[in-house]
Amino acid sequence: MLVAQRIVADINDRGNVVGDRLPPERLMLEKYEVGRGTLRESLRFLELQGVITLKPGPGGGPVVVQPDASSLATALTLLLQFSNAPFRTIAEARLGLEPMMSQLCAERMNEEDIASLEDSVKTMRNNLDDQTVFLEENKRFHDVIAHGSGNAMFGYLVDALLGILDGSAIGIEYPEYRREAVHDAHFQIYQAIASRDPGAAAASMHEHIQQYVRYAEKKFPEVLDAPIVWGQG
């Protein structure tokens, strides 16, 4: 772990960016003064955390990549599973977090992200009969809001939460009337953000998530009460 921390510190100190190769193994062995087995375990740990990828073969080796929320989602899922937490836990967390994100978006979001929100709303509207597109746009909409809030923590948290609580994977279905309701909610949230109205943005998002919870409680209560399990769906 200490060697892994030093490698990350050196990545930052050198100003390495995604796609940069790290020094050859022999140079790292000299620099960190550890055995080959320890160095390789450290690099493998960083690969599992999404910091590097290990390319095999001649000219291969460790290459810097952009970490995503998958490791966070795995860690959260395991923590929640061993706490015997139900899927309702994730829905409640989103109910607390996403209105605040929407409020920040109305204050901070740039025009490019606002255009992405509008595009997502339009794409969903034009494909309400296609559940695959609906689910993709539903996730994209919430991702854009999370990352557009200007708070990196929110972006990664929502990525992780959406990865855990994929309604289609855990058994929550979206008939067309629900897809239409979701689209209408997204449109209201988009309008509030584009109008730079923080209060309306927060209120619209709160009602949107609340509607989801009410729908799930009415139609799929056993799903919300089911324990979170790593690898579910």
TrEMBL record:
Domain HTH gntR-type: from-to ranges: 1-67
Entry-linked Pfam families: FCD, GntR
rRNA-binding in keyword set: no
Entry keywords, A to Z: DNA-binding, Transcription, Transcription regulation
Gene3D superfamilies: GntR ligand-binding domain-like (1.20.120.530), Winged helix-like DNA-binding domain superfamily/Winged helix DNA-binding domain (1.10.10.10)
Source species, domain of life: Bacteria
Database matches in InterPro entries: GntR_C, TF_FadR/GntR_C, Tscrpt_reg_HTH_GntR, WH-like_DNA-bd_sf, WH_DNA-bd_sf
Zinc among keywords: no
SMART domains registered for this protein in UniProt: FCD (SM00895), HTH_GNTR (SM00345)
Identification of the protein by name: FadR family transcriptional regulator
Species in which this protein is naturally found: Nocardioides deserti
Lineage of origin: Bacteria, Bacillati, Actinomycetota, Actinomycetes, Propionibacteriales
